[in-house]
Amino acid sequence: MTEVIATNETILVVGGGISGMTAAIEAAETGKQVVLVEKRPYVGGRVTQLYKYFPKLCFPTCGLEINQRRAKMNPNLNIITMAEVTDIKGEAGDYTATVKISPRYINEKCTGCGDCGRAVEAEFDDEYNYGLGKRKGAYLPHTMAHPQRYVIDPAIIGTDDAQKAADACKVGAVDLEMQEETIELKAGAVIWATGWQPYDANKIQPYGYDRFANVITNVEFERLADPNGPTGGKIVRPSDGKEVKNVAFIQCAGSRDKNHLLHCSRICCMASLKQATYPADDVDISIYYIDIRAIDRFEDFYETVKAKDNVKFIKSKVASIVKGENDSPVLHGVDTEGYNRYANEHDLVVLAVGMEPSVDKASFPVEIVMNEEGFIEPDPNNGGIFAAGCSSDALDVNRAVQHATGAALRAVQVVNRVAGTEG
Which EC number(s) does UniProt give (predicted)? Predict the structure, then answer.
């Protein structure tokens, strides 16, 4: 059984991405007891799936390592992975949260040696790589995963593969008898940091994401470019594995559209500009855009990318994509600067899909005030529940971290009032 000591002076953080980790660490470093609940087998969220940040083109691994070290060193922080908050009752200063914990089938004895993964034969689509590759039925989610413990897919429990994993483990870390459990936690304040999810490109029918292998999303392209990704960093076509020579980026794919996402996600333009630097300089890049959102410190980066000889900007809302020769997508539309119709063929098309909240109002465990896009509003009616990062709005990493720090301070104020009242 998972044992967690929590009181109404504890801060509960729901979601262990960059915002949740930031809020949890900042609150714990003020001396508060913090419990962080994360549904994935590891913390770090979607930031761990990025190859580089914009505009400096630096790697996320540095910041991740620092945050993980801060988390490990702080005795005030208790992290529970593979767990979801299913219910919250009470009021500010006195909440009770119900948490469902899924079995990992690997206990704390795990050394990360990988013997269980090598023994298992079954393979599954790798969700960390957005299904672009495969992983074993016993696996480490990614090289920097925290906790650095393997996971056994529940689909192999009861099979010979599961027993092979158990037999291969020399330290007795495989526990095939683990069961799902439910616990209750007390908390004085709750920080909701469940982050964002990419808009479902299958819904954008004219772009053929569900029909054409060589139409992918920006988050999938990020994994292709990563040397630790499914192709070892080679940007290739999913249809035939050939390296690309011509890539198109379609901006506002499903965004600023009454049929899809009403809002602008703020980051998509910069993400595509960043991704335009990933291929080699002999790869032709075409960016189809309505307008480019590159303000303040991002303007210089925009100008740098725009000056590259292999990058071309086409002011147009792409109307449709059809299948051309050799499975190459053909983009149809009108260039709104010259009002010329085009039918442009590309090796690979990347849809810059927007951000939407990971948890919608219908599945939220407590009444809370949200706006029409589904983001949590900073409303007094939310009591001691505070959004952090992309639960509050579409934000880049820098702004998400800043917002999470603010959420931590507000939560600390709530539990300070509880402590003051009881004192």
Answer: 1.8.98.1
